[in-house]
Specification:
alpha+beta, 4 domains, 11 strands, Hydrophobic Seed Protein
């Protein structure tokens, strides 16, 4: 991975003006891990006003010495070396001073893997052995972890998020301090915690990260309701506790690379079980846990200030994840009600959640026949059937055009028109069908009945063909 030309140009311009300049932080970590950085950050001993003189179209991004420099690959942040002190709100420094040494800037960073700098030629500056920790897939605080987490409490969430997205383990001492500082999350806004949680849930190792949140007691501060499922046994349909089941369901969605919303629904879908549980052992019950869980989910998302549309969607998934379905018992109308309740746009996510629920229960097969049959039924009821409703004229149009009352002839004309349109779809225009209606009206009932019968048979034949195609798609009989 090479430093982009645009970034090199910024470093060269600063160097030619007599300033030090390095790429730094997460972009260097990504380069060392052979990943493509999402953005590039440059640190320098040049003061903000000096940076702006060298890059006239630049602009101040914040009060901490960061200047945004426009380039063909987007805005590149160029920040003056700085020292920070005093963190009374456990998030932002009370005082920021510009520094003259790269070492001063690196020592204020969160983790060793993010405290590595690289000059324009690719030479590495790594005073905290971040490369070694990257090699060993270790997340370690820079210097004293107690000091780093006291400075910015959000770093304790970032550590677990990196564990999820990178697949790294947290150094023992660093993890001890995370647990010791868990209560400081109270000082962090719900929105920032929510954003870190979403990134964590979206990681390849989301299930392990959720376990890590529990071990470090961070989950007590974020979603304590989930902890109610720890040690809660289930009935004969489950071999895992409620907590284990929820985490295993999440693990499946991460392995399948499903979206964040499905992952959250998988983690929360049985959150209401501990409160709904009645009895013990194989015959215990959890009646109404879906309704209870939906209420709990809604409250959790309100507390974490989730956008309303996301909260509504996941709450619906939790509420309807227990939908009943047996191929020989469920009717098309009940499938339509399910689609209406969950929303057509959320059906695919509901089915993915059902897969996760099954695997999380210890069932070896994610998509059994009955679930495939449900997908077939949903496709079937979601499409418009082949019928006279497809025509560009309706019964009222025919009665108005011919000045006739409702009766069998109206239906026969509709079916006769249908036969023609199925043979030649280009005839399905209001102009042609009105003209053809006039011709059909002159026919006898016997002639019209014959054409109508042909239309009905053709409609049924094509409808059956379409249904068979949908069955084949989902491998059902």
């Amino acid at each position: 991975m090479q430093i982009p030309h645009e970034v090199k140009k910024i470093i060269e311009t600063l160097n030619q003006a007599g300033h030090e300049a390095f790429v730094v932080g997460g972009c260097v970590r990504d380069v060392l891990m052979k990943k493509t950085p999402k953005d590039w950050d440059v640190t320098t001993n040049a003061k903000p006003e000096e940076i702006q003189k060298l890059f006239p179209d630049s602009f101040y991004e914040n009060e901490f010495g960061t200047v945004g420099v426009k380039s063909d690959i987007g805005v590149i942040e160029v920040t003056t070396y700085r020292l920070e002190s005093g963190y009374s709100d456990k998030r932002h420094p009370d005082e920021v001073k510009f520094a003259t040494k790269l070492q001063d800037d690196l020592q204020r960073r969160d983790f060793t893997m993010n405290a590595i700098a690289m000059d324009g030629g690719g030479a590495i500056i790594d005073p905290y052995e971040g490369q070694k920790d990257i090699t060993h897939k270790t997340i370690r605080a820079v210097g004293d972890p107690e000091a780093r987490f006291s400075e910015d409490a959000l770093r304790i969430m970032r550590a677990v998020r990196f564990a999820s997205t990178l697949g790294f383990k947290i150094d023992d001492k660093t993890q001890e301090e995370i647990k010791a500082h868990a209560h400081h999350l109270k000082h962090i806004s719900a929105e920032r915690i929510r954003d870190e949680l979403l990134k964590l849930i979206g990681g390849d190792h989301a299930a392990q990260a959720i376990e890590l949140l529990r071990e470090t007691e961070l989950l007590d501060e974020i979603i304590p309701e989930l902890l109610e499922g720890v040690g809660v046994t289930q009935n004969l349909h489950h071999i895992y506790t409620v907590w284990e089941h929820n985490v295993r369901s999440l693990k499946y969605t991460a392995e399948k690379n499903y979206g964040t919303e499905v992952r959250l629904a998988a983690l929360l879908h049985d959150i209401g079980k501990p409160r709904a549980k009645r009895g013990e052992g194989y015959n215990s019950t959890f009646y109404g846990h879906d309704v209870i869980g939906a209420r709990m989910t809604r409250d959790i998302f309100k507390r974490l200030k989730f956008p309303q549309d996301i909260a509504d969607k996941i709450t619906k998934l939790v509420r309807y994840h227990m939908f009943y379905y047996l191929p020989d018992e469920v009717t098309e109308s009940s499938v339509r009600r399910l689609v209406a309740n969950i929303g057509k746009e959320n059906v695919e996510e509901l089915l993915k959640l059902r897969e996760a629920d099954r695997i999380g229960s210890g069932t070896p097969k994610a998509i059994p026949y009955k679930l495939r049959h449900l997908k077939f039924m949903i496709d079937k009821v979601a499409r418009d059937p082949i019928s006279p409703k497809m025509l560009k004229v309706n019964g009222n149009d025919i009665m108005t055009l011919l000045s006739i009352p409702p009766g069998p002839r109206v239906g026969m004309i509709m079916n006769a028109l249908m036969e023609e349109v199925l043979e030649d779809p280009e005839k399905n225009t209001k102009k042609y069908l009105e003209f053809r209606t006039g011709e059909l009206s002159a026919m006898s009932d016997q002639q019209l009945a014959y054409l109508a019968k042909q239309g009905k048979e053709k409609s049924k034949e094509l409808e059956d063909e379409e249904v068979e195609k949908i069955k084949a798609k989902h491998f059902v009989k």
